[in-house]
Amino acid sequence: MLEAAITGSRRYWIWVSFLLVVTAIGFISWLRELHMGSGLTTGLSRDVTWGLHVGQLTFFVGVAASAVMVTLPYYLHDYKAFGKMTILGEFLAVSAVIISMLSVFAIMGQPTRIWNVLLYATPNSIIFWDLVVLSVYLILNILCGWTVLGAERKGVPPPAWIKPFIIFAIIWAPLIHTITAFIFAGLPGRDHWLTSLQAAHFLSTAFAAGPSLLIILSIIVKRVSRFDPGNIAIQTLAKIATYALIIHIFFIGLEFFTAFYSRIPGHMRPLEYLYTGLEGHTELIFVMWTSSILAAVALVLLLTPATRRNEKTLILASLAVFFSIWLDKGFCFVVSGFIPNPFDRVTGYWPALNEFFVAAGCWSIGFLVLTILYKIVIAVREENAG
Amino acid sequence: MSYRAKGEEVMSMSRRNFLKLAGVSAIAGIGGAAIAGEVQKSVLETTQITPKAGALTGKRLAMVIDMGKLKSVEDINRVTDACHRIHNVPHFDDPKHEVKWIWTETFGHTFPGQEHKFMPEDMKHEPFLVLCNHCEYPACVRVCPTKAMFKRKDGIVMHDPHRCIGCKYCMAACPYGAISYNLKDPRLAKNLQEYMNPEFPTRAIGVVEKCMFCFERLAKGLKPACVEASNGALVFGNVDDPASEIRKLLASKYTIRRKPELGEEPNIYYILG
Questions:
Q1: How many Cβ pairs within 8 Å bridge chains A and B?
Q2: What's the per-residue H, E or C state across A283-350?
Q3: Dihedral through CA A373, CA A374, CA A380, CA A386, nearest 10?
Q4: pLDDT digits (tens, 9 = 90+) for A13-26
Q5: Would you call A127 and B169 a contact, using CB atoms and an 8 Å cutoff?
Q6: Chain B interface includes A347 (CB < 8 A)
Q7: How far apart (Å, rounded) are the C-alpha atoms in residues A93 and B47?
Q8: 27-56 in chain A: CB under 8 A from chain B
């Protein structure tokens, strides 16, 4: 089936070349960081030790987990409208896991020692578990997606042996995001992260941002090929994203109540930093408010039946959800956990250009994998349609 | 040397971890037994060689900092310089790139939330020494994915810069801000260009580092460098030994610790002077 990836229109090759160029820029930027040190090539500091890359890990693990929003209704509830969509969800998960894993790799000061994580496997460490669950999830989604697509190509039903793996992947999806939340939610002295709501909140944002991205991708696929994932499926995804977005906004409200009604400084100060600035540090105010406004716009567009059903406004709403949550979870959430520092001092953070390039490189590799996988899906579907 | 009791303490910590892990593995569908084996191993991994005769040992090494005896800036600088000099700690001017093992903070920043406006003015501005707390239940050790951060039987929280992958998880976990990361090549720092102690290794770019209670000096029977330079303001010893000087001091003077509510059981005590 891979041969479909090496034949394509001019438009396809321009897109692939673009991704390859960005990947190359990202790779060079990463080598620069390794060589010169993150002191000169990132906005990180002794006080804010994680930034953009850990945000990407957090965000894209969520996107990966959200595949379950199409596989679960289809495989467990026999929701037929998702029949054509499941493969898109699974392959999106594959590329999102790749972006997550590359982002973890990018934060390491000594990446050549990555095997130490397996060589001295440490079950106390949540990062160890994150690596385990992400690797398993990656393999599961490649296996399930590829097998089901292969069967479809031959015009036969998927083999029976794949079903347990599909069920396993459905159970595994919330697990990867729960473990990712545990990276943050178990650290003493980081009050902004230290909440048992964390995993639930992560899942709500994942199930809003992931399906939104899948809506956009489905519409792109529909426009560039003869394969139509189906309007009913897209509309169901929109409803899933709407519910998840509402839960996400509700959870933000819960956070604010606990912090500001209790008046405990450790809980209030990170939120103050994000929304109003703290001790003259205002780096993230604009980002955070943009996120809030986008969420509000998306909520209105998604709750209004007319704009949800209209493809153009649905694209707008999906983009708004995606970027709202990206700005929040893929950017602000990680940084604000470090502010104020353990000495109750504020050190600001803004990513350096080099850091953006490295992140863009990770994205490009992910999207390259996504493009190739989707290209194969389209080829098989077009071939079968005749 | 009753190491066993200590061993049991370590075990109870890992038992707690084990329960957490068992919960996770139940969801994950991974055999809990395999993990139990791993956790036991991870405890044993930190087993150390028998110290030489004459080495300073103990089951729970700790330090008391008597602020009443550290009045002048010179007193403080002597203490911090002694450490940074022998451990080749690089000095960078930009606070974002700082590497520090022992340094000073004001009262309000050392004990956030404890300062109030009616307290003595001089105490507000007094420079308090801060360093790694060598916790009984160190969060940095708990989160480290390679056991580069580990706890010795004598209580010292150690870091192996050759195993460290530079993920900085320990820095996110430490509630005391005790860990530094080499954002720049430490060997290029001006102070290390001028003087380097050939008896202690320098670190590489991209790994973390922190105070290790002068393990290299303890092995030779010497007290930590900061203690030696403090003219008696810093008292170091084994709090598990009721006859030790540090225990007598703790029994006779009121002491406080940083963020005791977090349950890490820090081993640095302060006498406010």
A1: 169
A2: CCHHHHHHHHHHHHHHHHHHHCHHHHHCHHHHHHHHHHHHHHHHHHHHHHHHHHCCCCCCCCCCCCCC
A3: -160
A4: 999 999 999 999 99
A5: yes
A6: yes
A7: 42
A8: 34, 37-40, 44-47, 49-50
d(CA A270, CA A249): 18
Q: How far is B174 from chain A (nearest CA, A)?
A: 7
Task: Give the phi and the psi of residue B197 in degrees, each rounded to 5.
Answer: -80, 115
User: What is the average per-residue pLDDT within A53-79?
Assistant: 96
Q: What angle do CA A97, A181, A91 make, to 5 degrees?
A: 20
Q: Which residue of A has its CA nearest to B168?
A: A49
* Ordered per-residue pLDDT tens for chain B, 273 residues: 333 334 334 444 455 555 555 555 555 544 444 444 444 444 444 445 677 777 877 789 999 999 999 988 899 999 999 999 999 999 999 999 999 999 999 999 999 999 999 999 989 999 999 999 999 999 999 999 999 999 999 999 999 999 999 999 999 999 999 999 999 999 999 999 999 999 999 999 999 999 999 999 999 999 999 999 999 999 999 999 999 999 999 999 999 999 999 999 999 999 997
Residue matched to tokens 């360093």: B131
Token pair listed for B93 = 């001017």
What range defines the domain where residue A130 resides?
Answer: 2-385
Using CA atoms, how far apart are residues A63 and A307, in angstroms rounded to an integer? 24
pLDDT digits (tens, 9 = 90+) for A189-211: 999 999 999 999 999 999 999 99
* d(CA A46, nearest CA chain B) in Å: 5
Q: Which residues pair with B256 in a beta bridge?
A: B270
Task: List the one residue out of A334, A112, A84, A108 whose CA is nearest residue A218.
Answer: A84
B142 contacts chain A (CB < 8 A): yes
Sole residue written with tokens 């089936």:
A1
A109 and B207 within 8 Å at the Cβ level: the answer is yes
For residue A254, the domain's CATH number is 1.20.1630.10
| Per-residue tokens: B256 | 């406080």
Distance between B222 CA and the closest CA of chain A, angstroms: 31
Please, what is the Cα angle at A42 between A40 and A48, to 5 degrees?
115
Chain position carrying tokens 């974002």:
B96
Show residues of chain B in contact with A101, CB under 8 Å: none
Residue of A44, A117, A179 with shortest CB distance to B145: A117
Q: Do A123 and B185 touch (CB under 8 A)?
A: no
Query: How near does any CA of chain B get to the CA of A253, in Å?
Result: 25
* pLDDT at residue B10, rounded to an integer: 40
pLDDT of residue B15: 53
Cite the residue boundaries of each domain of chain B with CATH code 3.30.70.20: 58-271
Of the pLDDT bands very low, low, confident and very high (cuts 50, 70, 90), residue A4 is: confident
Predicted local confidence at residue A383, as pLDDT = 87
**Inter-chain residue contact A123 with B183, CB threshold 8 Å:** no
Architecture of the domain spanning B58-271: 2-Layer Sandwich (3.30)
Mean pLDDT of all residues in chain A?
95
User: In chain A, how many domains are there?
Assistant: 1
Per-residue pLDDT of A228-238, as tens digits, reads: 999 999 999 99
CA distance A70 to A76: 10
B172 touches chain A (CB under 8 A): yes
Identify the closest residue of chain B to A264 by CA–CA distance. Answer: B113
Question: What does the pLDDT look like over A79-99, one tens digit per residue?
Answer: 999 998 999 999 999 999 999
Which of A114, A121, A124 is facing B142, going by the closest CB pair? A124
Nearest-angstrom CA–CA distance, B172 and A331: 16
- One-letter amino acid identity for B43? V
At B207 the three-state DSSP class reads: coil
Distance from CA of B109 to the nearest CA of A (A): 5
